[in-house]
Amino acid sequence: MSGVSRRSLLQGAGVAGALVAAPRPALATEGDLKIVDLRAESLVDPIGLEAEGVRLSWRIEADARGVMQARCAIEAASSKALLEAGKADLWKAGEVLADKAVDIAWAGRPLRSRDVVYWRVTVQDSRGIRVTSPTARFEMGLIEPSDWTAKWVAVESERDAADRAAGLRWMRGDRTRDGSPRAFRLSFDVAAAGPATLFSIANFDSEQWLDGQPVDRGPKSQHRFGTEPIAVTTHQLAAGRHVLAVEVQDATGFNSPKIHEIACAAMVRLEGGGKPVRITSEGMRTAVKPGGGWQQPTFDDARWAAATPSANQQQAWPRDGAHLLRREFSIDKPVMRARLYATALGAYVAEINGKRVGDALMSPESSDFREAVLYQTHDVTAHVRKGANAIGAMVGEGWYGSYHAPAGRYAFGDPPLRFLAQLEIEHPDGTRTTITTDDRWQQSSSPITQAEIYHGEDYDARLEQPGWSSPGLSAPDWRRAAIGKTPPCRLRAQVSPPLRAVERLRAKTIRSFPGDRHVVDFGQNFAGWVHLQAKAEAGHTATLRFAEILTPEGMIDQANLRAARAACTYVFRGDPAGESYEPRFSYFGFRYVEVSGFGRAPTPDEVEGVVVTSDLPRSGWLLVDNPIVQGLWHNGFWSQRSNFFGVPTDCPQRDERLGWTGDANVFWDAAAFNMDVGAFTRRFMGDMRDGQGPRGEFPDYAPAGWRDLQLGASPGWADAGIILPWTVWQRYGDTGVVDRNWPAMKHYLAFILEQNPDLVWRNGRGYDYGDWVALDAKEPGDETTPKALIATAMWKRSADAMADMAKGSGRQPEAERYRALSADIGRAFAAAFVKPDGSVGNGSQCGYILALRFGLVPEPQRAAATRLLVADIKRRGGLLSTGFLGTPFSLDALADRGETKLVYDLLLRTAFPSWGYMIAKGATTIWERWNADMVDAAMNSYNHYALGAVSGFVYRRIAGIDPLAPGFQRFRFAPVLDGRVTRGGARYESVLGRIETKWQQTPGGFEAELTVPANARAELLLPAAAPDRISEGGLPLAKAAGVTVLGQAGDRVTLEIGSGRYRFQTRS
């Protein structure tokens, strides 16, 4: 901004200056100047915003060079007619001198629930050309809790409600864990012979016996991530006494450090005497080392201790199908506007008058439901009509009810599933009709008989109820819905793009195997599901099983999915016209799907891949004339697409799919090139804050289902709480993300300092994953690099980011404090880890890379440290030995020190380990491990973006789009060149406008084409012996408009250019 503070632009309504438009139609262009892409909170014409400091932005476009915004004025009104009449009743900001078109905080009349704001901006550019934008709009959601009059409706069957009322009563022994298994016995009497259902669960692996006979609970996953799921078995019991015996193992590993007891729960539902009888586990007895025969009903357990209630009373009931809800209502006035505000503890699909509402999928998305549930705002004006209407919802388990590793089912709160909806209909006479969830709704079962995030969905089309969401349905079997308990969480508007189907993939090959099994290959690993379109007789069942790899024989291989079933079944209703199906409440990470039950091979028209992701606007396209570099970017992009699924997950396929913060921390640089992650980051930072510990530690993953596992702040993981906001501020100039997260970020850094006053991070390091999956590690978290070294380097990086953000957001005293902290950490690091000969830590590559990249090696030792790093890479045969925290910074560290050839050696390598090796092995996404094709399935994802974070380097330092100032107000074009790659470039849709680079090395020199958006400037470092060896558009630099020579260093000439299109040529 020129000569004014950020807030001076944001003064309230006042006398307009010369720039404010007179009443007239909004202009889209004046000469070659245009104002485009008006946004609120990074979104185009959003609805349902929160009141927390709405920020506006726009872009200006012009063909001329060097165009900058010089003045601007904003007008906002409560209707489009008022705005176009020049009556800005919400905000009329006077003319200001300002080159800023982003991060404009609302400073008009305070915004209230449901406010609709129409706004426009008038701009004068540096040439004196003036233009007024088209009108944009945004709309507020329900800001105050009192705005909600809807009640939460319970979603469950009558039988499940009765089971829940009886409860899973967790019981424990009389002492804490000592490594020994613990035995439990429950004796109960059956009055009348008949069927019985047994529910049993334990917090560690367990075995059950009923009347001395082992209970077959089905296959177990050898590598399950998390607690054992509840087992449900059916039995025929005679009248008389019966005994359930349970043995629970002690365990070690990720899930166990803060579980201080061995516990289990059981319930038996007896149905032999008419009305079901439920027997709970309160009468259990328990012992350690019980002796032989203790599982038998004749064993005397009188000397055993009575089990006592456990602190854990999680109600992890078995997975269920989806349920239907509906209500009819009548509207006696014309409809002007209608909004549906809805959410669920579970997931929902809403319909009004037989039509689906919106195209968002699996809403609400994952969140910490103990703290907040996201609600969605839908424009349903076209759905509602005067007269008879009906509203309905199909509600499934979603992320609330499904198994959530490692905590299990209902990790965020107890059942039942619940649904909340508030339909508000505005009429031309100014009145409003409100239809809410209450006890007037009805409930029924649905065709979805089972649905769960990890395991898949079962759908029986014979159970469909045509017209269930339309008025006039005859519904004698539907029952009145019950009002559920209001959860303690707050309602938070979803203000990031939802999950949507963004692409459809056609099968590349279909291969048949004996047993009516047919393997479909879509040619690309992705997240989503299959669209099934086929004909079959009623009752015929098709089964779809998903996988990302194949066995050597060509069958699907689900071993690396661990406990995730990853399957769907569809029972046909027998429609002669054909039937179609897509899952609603589950998703999969896969390239291959096995189709069985057809009796023949399906055709490509019958099975179509549906790519599902958080529908973020795409912002980056890379084009480098080398298949390995281009393939690295392609694989990273598809891993991002697969794992940006409401939150940034680690993997989309196995029984995990968690928002691991370490992966996000290192990948956000690349992510913000590929897609506009502004709104997505703001949404995820809400989850990070919700999961922040009381001492300030950010979580290892968010949402965190099992908070008791938080032992501290894991370096490189917890730092995402600072690096994500920093990245968004850098890429989009958004200080709002800084302001909203500042208290949480301060709290985090204060925690580290309190634990480590000597400024070497040795204490409070949580799970301390280190350079995860480094090449030399036998186990993923082995200390191949000193973990205190890694932690201190990450602390220094976060302190630097805080100093930058403090300065950029007007917090100068804190900027100075964090800059001083950074310097102090640097000195402590050098004293602890850098030796006089330049060696760092234990000599690992990761240690050198982090120390060099983060400025932790004193100047006298930098050259020696660089030589030692290079020597280690070459000693190993020209390969990286780094993992999640070292790899992302490796190429930058080498390029910073002029090791260009080695950068390209690593990028272009195709032998193991390398990105090229993955590509040579057919990878279409990034692997979790360098050696994914060589290790077992315990932790082995083929769709994991962390090791692909170097694609950010490729954008910045090969394509040549390297940001130097927040919001790309200034960027650098200085591609790292090597003769093995002769052409490169990228297109990036920045917050200011399109940036495009194209370059090629020629026999006679170097050529570059650049597009710079208005309001931005670029610094170019071109390979040339002198400025007179460079021309632009065929003209010498002295005659080229808008080009300034800044100087020369070595074989590079530095130029500066403003907005416009340029073509440079250099002669050798």
TrEMBL record:
Q: Name the Gene Ontology molecular function terms of this record.
A: alpha-L-rhamnosidase activity
Question: Which top EC class is given?
Answer: hydrolase
Alpha-L-rhamnosidase six-hairpin glycosidase domain ranges (all copies): 618-958
EC number(s) on file: 3.2.1.40
Q: Which InterPro entries match?
A: 6-hairpin_glycosidase_sf (IPR008928), 6hp_glycosidase-like_sf (IPR012341), Alpha_rhamnosid (IPR016007), Bac_rhamnosid6H (IPR035396), Bac_rhamnosid_C (IPR035398), Bac_rhamnosid_N (IPR013737), Ig-like_fold (IPR013783), Rhamnosid_concanavalin (IPR008902)
Q: Which SUPFAM superfamilies match?
A: Six-hairpin glycosidases
Catalytic reaction list: Hydrolysis of terminal non-reducing alpha-L-rhamnose residues in alpha-L-rhamnosides
Say yes or no: keyword Hydrolase present: yes
Where does the record place the Alpha-L-rhamnosidase C-terminal domain? 960-1032
Protein's GO biological process? carbohydrate metabolic process
Taking every annotated instance into account, which residue ranges of this chain make up the domain Alpha-L-rhamnosidase concanavalin-like?
A: 514-612
One Pfam short name: Bac_rhamnosid6H
**Out of the domains of life, which is the source?**
Bacteria
Keywords from the named record:
Hydrolase
Identify the residues that the record assigns to the Bacterial alpha-L-rhamnosidase N-terminal domain, covering every copy.
334-503
Task: Tell me what this protein is called.
Answer: alpha-L-rhamnosidase
